[in-house]
């Protein structure tokens, strides 16, 4: 059984009103690239792909209406079975119990299944910087590219963080000739590793971001980029002043750009609930998404350290397809 909270397949990516940033709609920037060598599917093509994919892999009969998951736990398949303290033992008959309700009707439902897939969804909550702010400070804090487009640029833009949302904003600033001050906690080398798996021919602009981070500073015509690694925003002052604490304490006149918070939504402590499982413990089989250490546990997305959209593999839908194929082969 596959349950989802979104009203249609593909979740945000299938929603034409979705925020068109890289993580929400992975190929959105292709429509702005005119070089034939950089061709990738358009936004509309991608949306059609997501909407048709479940039918192609044959899992639609297992799909249920939009469903809000409220809790996830392991239970014995039969009352006489051993509880879940040692659920990585394949000999035990353990099932997953999912409690929630249908989003449209509010009807409460309990599902039980042998397998479970944890797929990291996206939150629409903006990141809130936990920093001191002087009374009267009006430093704009923006999140989406749409907000960025409507801003009046009287100051350089301070971009906080080294993720793909930050990369999108840097690309936007370069196209619109807005100088960038880039601040993030990681070292230069660690920040650039996020982009290392990307194919240079498929994602040339993100490879450019990786090289930009490693260069630390760039001046191109009237556009400038300056990065500060191992640094934190420590204080917001009046007049768009932002104090940054790092190797060298300094302050800038600027506005702020941040991303959004990724989360499971239904249980922020879900990993800890699984026998103290942490993100570092998650080692997944690259072809099936199943945990190497914990059988019947499937983990996708940022939880498994993979922040890239799985266009070829299909993410959750493909994982469900793999499970169904395995179960059918066992029956035959």
Automatic annotation (TrEMBL):
**Where does the source fall among the domains of life?**
Eukaryota
Protein's UniProt name:
Oxidative stress-induced growth inhibitor 1-like
In which organism is this protein found? Octopus sinensis
Q: What is the lineage of its organism?
A: Eukaryota, Metazoa, Spiralia, Lophotrochozoa, Mollusca
